[in-house]
Design a protein that fits this description.
single chain, 144 residues, mainly alpha, elongated
Length: 144
């Protein structure tokens, strides 16, 4: 039978030489992402994994606190959709923003797209698995 996350984490803490603040923070980050994925899936089969990861995160955070020598770890507060709406937009003029590409495009022909071609290109980009619109993201956060 496969060892639980908690058992493997305890074994790592007890036996590994590379346990330091950075490695603990990285592991906590990876496990937090994994936990969020499992919570998002809402699968009944994942309930034991969710519990295991939650307990593992508590254990690792306690060890991080112990190694760092602090009474309490800083907490990150997630941004709510209402806070996003109240944020003022960032003006790119305020920064030294260089929109030029990293490659030399002087020899490349300039492409002029029609409105239909632009719409088609945007639609194909939006279909890529890693692309999500801000509106979809806000809606997902509201439903969670």
């Amino acid at each position: 039978m496969e060892k639980s996350y908690l058992e493997r984490a305890k074994q790592w803490i007890d036996n590994a030489d590379d346990v330091d603040i950075d490695s603990l923070e990285a592991t906590i980050g990876r496990f937090t992402v994994e936990l969020e994925k499992l919570k998002f899936s809402n699968s009944i089969q994942d309930a034991s994994k969710i519990k295991d990861l939650s307990e593992t995160l508590v254990f690792l955070k306690d060890k991080l606190q112990e190694i760092a020598g602090v009474d309490e770890l800083p907490t990150e507060t997630p941004i709510t959709p209402s806070q996003i709406k109240s944020m003022t937009p960032v003006n790119c003029e305020d920064f030294r923003f260089d929109p030029s590409p990293l490659i030399d495009i002087s020899d490349s022909p300039i492409m002029v797209l029609s409105a239909e071609e632009k719409a088609g290109a945007l639609a194909s980009i939006r279909q890529l698995p890693g692309i999500i619109s801000g509106q979809q993201l806000v809606q997902k956060n509201l439903t969670v």
